[in-house]
Amino acid sequence: MSDKSPQSTLTQRRSISRKDSELPEKDTAADEVIAESKGHINVVCRFRPFNDKEKEYGEKTSIEFNSDQKSVAVIGHDTAPLLFCFDRVFPSSTLQQEVYDAAGKPIIESVLEGFNGTILAYGQTSSGKTFTMSGPSVDDPLYQGIIPRMVKTIFQNIDEASEHLEFTVKVGYCEIYLEKIRDLLDPSKKSLKIMEDKVKGIFIEDLTEDYVYQESDMYQLMKFGTRNREVAETQMNEVSSRSHAIFMITISQSNTLDLSAKTGKLYLVDLAGSEKISKTGAEGKRLDELKKINRSLSTLGLVIFSLTDGKSTHIPYRDSKLTRILQDSLGGNSKTCLILTCSPSLYNEQETISTLRFGIRAKAIKNKPKVNKEHTVAELKILLAKAKEEIIKKDSKITLLERHIKDIGETLPNQTEDSEASNEFLKSAEYQELLQELEFERQQYSNEIEKSSKYKQELNSQTIKNQNLVKENDILNGKLMALVMAKQSIEDKLRDYEDTIQQLRAKNEMLENQILSFTNCNMQLEEKLTEKEAEIKKLASELLSVKEKDEIIADLNRRLKSQEEQLRVKLLTESNGRKMKSESVLISQKENLAAEIEEKNETIYKLNTEIEDLKRILEKTKKDHEQAEFFVKSKINTLERNLELLTLMYSNMNTQKAMAKMENEITEKKVKRKTERIEQLEKQLTKISEQAHGYKYKNNVLSKELNEMKDDLPNRAHNKIKKMIKGGNTRVLGIISPYAFQNDVIKNS
Questions:
Q1: What is the CATH number of domain 38-375?
Q2: 128 known ligand binder
């Protein structure tokens, strides 16, 4: 019987097969040893130039760079200098290419060898993380960041690889915003879940991952995802990232000679910056974002602390989505590089020190990277065939040995022992592992077939959607024309209403002028009436004065007659009583009395004359009074009639004015309603126009994409179909082949 059992032979074969599967130009086993010995996280630090806000505070700095390019000192005014040592320190004048060569290129080369890799950009807000990772534009050869430069390196290495190597490059892009995972390649997926299984490890469920075949495919996905990323303006940064962005590249390679395969996954992480409310002026939604960002970064710091303090038994990976996704990157199966981005300004000194301390703590983390080697179905089939062939040879040899033993008359070994040995082999861990790998590969192959069918259905569905969008666009254009016509009709009616309002306003002004004229006339008549009443009062007072004079004259006449009688009586009495007096005295008295009587007579005559004059004046006054009274009465009657007429006209005018005002208000309300309706229709028209433009734009985009699918580049649905990229110069054929496949897909759909 042979010294080597089937089990040991199979083990030996698998060992030889694995050694043969390695690339001839690189010693992967040696790389694994180097990786284990260099398991610490690679930490580099980059300082950006002063920005405009820092220049306002003066270009003051407390940072000093050492000539070894591996240490930096922070010199405080009141404290001792702080020295920080890293794997590399980049001053403000460092070019993007230098940063990539030191921090990015070694990682991507390891990923191409089958290791997992991670690059994290950490620093305060506006410190240059996004500039370092992506750059201002992927098309700018001088300022493009680490990610676009890595894309070039990937395809350069594929071009330089052996022709018997085949590659697949798969890309995913997501962000963690407010502790929710959002798919940046499919914005409709806004709350993805993190899952874990034994085969795939930790992964994001239902995340869009597209296969790419050339640099332009990956650049297009980068631009599309970056446009969907959450950014906002703060007092520290005009375009501040409000989320953690994770760009994932999965590179699988298979060897067509020995059918071996290995896969490397790369995480490129642009972390949101830590912020202070006092500096960023965050409020409302920005404040909620800041709290979530700072909480996530605090959890990251806590994980790093737990990994390095040597005492923690529990690592809080699950406390945030970020640390859960980066579990392998921090202390696990990954080669990780941490890029610290800092400000040189004295204004941000505390934040810079905090960032540098974070880097020192992270540098103490030990990772355990290893090559992710896979057994393909074909490789396992070959191993199985070789094992079967070896078993057949062994069986033949055993049969010959048994015959030989029988010929020489020796006893054969117990068959139960052989059976037990065979059963032990079937139950062995290696055999079970082989079966599990075969089952896993079979399942993966089945999944790929299902995915291919699913993406074909999606392509058909997208074509139908495109046709429906064209129809909807036509319907919307019809509705748009109807709305334009309705708007024109409403505008015509509105102009008619405006003309009617102008006519009513002119009529209203005319009526108001007439009312004002009648009011002025009425006031003039009232003034004349007042004047006449004053004249009547004056005449009445004069008449009263004449009557009083008549009474006085009558009274004087009575008194004169009385005095005359008294004088006569007196004369008689005196003549009788004074007969004895001398005649001279009597004569003088008689003369005096005669003179007095004459005087009285003259007075009476004058009074009678005055009375006659007064009587004539009184008569004339009576006549004038009667005429004036008649005139005044007739005037009053006329004024009263005019007043009644004016009152009636005024009442009619007020009624007409009220009616005109009411009609005006009704018209204004109608106009207001019409205006509001027009504004509403205009808003609807604008909205529909925007929707129509949006649909038109989408239609153009979809048409363009459809044309690209038919003529030029593979579409997204095809990108989801796994297609190998040949190494070396034959990669051109690998790029051309999808076109033929795409045409087949379009024809079949």
A1: 3.40.850.10
A2: yes
